[in-house]
Amino acid sequence: MTVLRKEMFHLPDGMIYLDGNSLGPLPKAAPARLEGMVRDEWGAHLIKGWNVDDWMGQPMRVGNLVGRLIGAAKDSVTMGDTLSVKVYQALSAAVQMRPDRKVILSDTGNFPSDLYMAQGLIAQLGQGHELRTVAPEDVADAITDEVAAVMITQVDYRSGRMHDMEQITKAAHAAGAVMIWDLAHSAGAVPVDLEGSNCEFAVGCTYKYLNGGPGAPAFIYVRPDVIGDIQPALSGWLGHDAPFAFDLDYRPAMGIERMRVGTPPVLQLTVLEEAMKAWDGVDMADVRAASIELTDLFIELVEARCPELTLFSPRNAADRGSQVSFAHPEGYAVMQALIARDVIGDFRAPNLIRFGFTPLYIDETDVRGAVDVLADVLDNRLWDDPEYKARSRVT
Ligand SMILES: Cc1ncc(COP(=O)(O)O)c(C=O)c1O
């Protein structure tokens, strides 16, 4: 079944937007919803909004919308903070669950912020933990009985290479380790079955495939049978069992709400809640089928027409997420030349041009149009212009 619903998104005329894996476009209904919320809820109700508009329940309400897309049981996902913070929370809880083990295992394809958060946690704990990173292909074999937690991003942000969630989670559990998945490049991109995978933790962001807007809050999932044993490292008042009792001592909430920290970002959650309507009735299996068609076609056309480019993503669709990267020695300038011609992707150091495929608003015509422009940029060396070589702060 087609999942294309372009009419729900604001896509500037003439632009081919292949960067929804980094920042999703504006859902058309979001500005009116946000304005209405600001005027009718914040404006009219002020502090009463926490109750009458149920702002306090929003992190769980939106968590359940996200949870449906990632195969999570009801009330096992909550929203808030940034993904880096959620990584820290999951990891600190995971290492506590295995106090006799000192290794956190990750891979060299993981997003650096996840590794940095692990390094910060290790320094803070001061208990001799070690962050061990291995090549993505070697993760399963590297899970030994020294490993407390395996922390992996399912889809590699650079290559799009996708880990087998079930297989790695099984290997982690067979060795007695706790499993954490970062679904930043999976949620809304590929089908995920958290319950089926049996992992203990999953985290992810909502500004990419879920179109919650820049700075949209992250999500965290904890398997319902382990949440009761977790002592949150970030023990903020909204993760307390009774925040408005104002007890002097922290006592975690019963369920996933203990992973909440402080006041939720109500304006961003309102936009995200509206954005999640684009997923009503959408089956992730249909999204995946469409994504594979788009990425396969893109690879085929680029390889036929742009021999200067080298495919950096897995060729086999089953091994990649919903993005494709190619290497070019002048990748940065090539991407700037594309962007100047309204084909939007991004650049990842050292030499990758990266394109995301989001079947809710990208179709075959977009793929063909993007390749036409890419071929023109390369064939005519349009990238070879000093203007395209000056690096901006965000690439
Ligand atoms: C896999 C992964 N982990 C963590 C992050 C960091 O997310 P945030 O900036 O929301 O903390 C990102 C950001 O893109 C990411 O892709």
Q: How would you characterize the overall build of this protein?
A:
With 395 residues, this protein is α/β, with parallel strands linked by helices. The chain folds into 2 domains: 6-28 and 283-389, Alpha-Beta Complex (Aspartate Aminotransferase, domain 1), CATH 3.90.1150.10; 54-279, Aspartate Aminotransferase, domain 2, CATH 3.40.640. The chain is 37% helix and 14% strand. It is built from 14 helices and 15 strands. The protein has helices spanning 30-45, 49-52, 58-69, 83-97, 112-125, 139-142, 165-174, 194-197, 224-227, 266-275, 284-305, 331-340, 364-379, 386-389; strands at residues 9-10, 16-17, 26-27, 77-79, 103-107, 130-134, 147-153, 178-182, 201-204, 219-222, 310-311, 323-327, 343-344, 346-348, 352-356. Strands 4-10-9-8-7-5-6 form a 7-stranded mixed β-sheet, with helices on both faces. Helix 7 (165-174) links the parallel strand 7 and strand 8 (178-182). The protein is globular. The protein starts with 8 loop residues before the first strand and ends in a 6-residue tail after the last helix.
Global outline: globular
Uncertain parts: none
Would you report the number of β strands?
Answer: 15
CATH superfamily (homologous) name of the largest domain: Type I PLP-dependent aspartate aminotransferase-like (Major domain)
- The CATH architecture category of the largest domain equals 3-Layer(aba) Sandwich
Helix content: 25-40%
Cα Rg: 22 Å
Reading the helices and strands in chain order gives EEEHHHEHEHEHEHEHEEHHHEEHEEEHH
CA(first)-CA(last) distance: 35 Å
CATH names the topology of the largest domain as: Aspartate Aminotransferase, domain 2
Mean pLDDT metric:
98
The CATH class of the largest domain: Alpha Beta
The strand line-up of the biggest sheet is 4-10-9-8-7-5-6
Structural class: alpha/beta
